[in-house]
Amino acid sequence: MLNEENIIISLDVSTEDEARKIFRLVGERAKLYKVGLQLLTSCGPAIIHELSAAGKDVFLDLKLFEIPNSVASAVKAAGLHGVKMVTVHAFGGLDILRAAVKAAEPFPDMKVLALTVVTSLQDADLKQVGVQSSVDEQVVRLAELADIAGCHGVVASAHEAKILKKKIRPDMFIITPGIQLEGEESTDQTRVTTPRKAFEAGATHIMIGRSITKADDPRAVFDRVCAELGV
Fold first, then answer.
1. 3-state per-residue secondary structure call for the chain
2. pLDDT tens across 21-55, in order?
3. Mean pLDDT in residue range 111-117
4. How many CB atoms lie within 10 A of CB 159?
5. Is-contact 143 114, C-beta < 8 A?
6. What value does the mean pLDDT take over residues 116-145?
């Protein structure tokens, strides 16, 4: 059953003050926030601890893509910061994914999520970097590697969620970025959809960023999303 914990707010901002303003304005209903490369690079891990102290869970979107030992060390560091989710690039292969899962074992509340293909890429973009598969084929291939490695979930657009439900373990999360509300202007993300359509396609969680972070009233937008989902 859906609830507020299935909605991840992406804090794609550059300062602690901006992030603090958003999670205070959204209020108590929102439980899960994404801290990505932009915010982490700008202000370091202090924002993670501030969110945790406010009773929020943190999705640390590192998109780790390094040698297995370095990935394992970063995952361990994430666990020590108390985050609930951390991302690793599935394109790095089985050894990297397995190293991440192993490193997360001392932190049973932390989930390792494998990033498949970012939502700004299409078939032609993959071909530019030598990947001849379609986006759908590549997402499935990487998700199946994540399943084999024991990852707790994958990150993929809602366009692939329906396929993935049939390809990976039923207990794995399918977390979908590229969420926009009806009537919004397009962004640099190309494989996008609405909150309801994402869950209907098989997503277990959605990530929504600019619709909330750029809004004059972030709480009203979050409430609109909850109303659309019936939560």
1. CCCHHHEEEECCCCCHHHHHHHHHHHCCCCCEEEECHHHHHHHCCHHHHHHHHCCCEEEEEEEECCCHHHHHHHHHHHHHCCCCEEEEEHHHCHHHHHHHHHHHCCCCCCEEEEECCCCCCCHHHHHHCCCCCCHHHHHHHHHHHHHHHCCCEEECCHHHHHHHCCCCCCCCEEEECCECCCCCCCCCCCCCECHHHHHHHCCCEEEECHHHHCCCCHHHHHHHHHHHHCC
2. 999 999 888 999 999 999 999 999 999 999 999 99
3. 97
4. 20
5. yes
6. 95
**Mind listing the pLDDT tens digit for each residue in 47-68?**
999 999 999 999 999 999 999 9
d(CA 97, CA 94): 5
How many CA atoms lie less than 13 Å away from 135 in the CB half-sphere? 18
Instruction: Calculate the alpha carbon distances from 91 to 94, 146, 167, 183 in Å.
Output: 9, 10, 17, 33
Task: Please state the φ and ψ torsions of residue 165, each to the nearest 5 degrees.
Answer: -55, -25
Total-model pTM: 0.93
Count of Cβ atoms closer than 10 Å to residue 183 Cβ = 6
Q: How far is CA 212 from the centre of its chain?
A: 16
Contact indicator for 113, 87 with CB cutoff of 8 Å: yes
Q: How far is CA 151 from the centre of its chain?
A: 14
Q: What whole-number distance in Å separates Cα of residue 230 and Cα of residue 125?
A: 36
Q: Which residues are catalytic?
A: 63
pLDDT digits (tens, 9 = 90+) for 147-199: 999 999 999 999 899 999 999 999 999 999 989 887 666 655 566 789 999 99
| Cα 150 versus chain centre, distance | 17
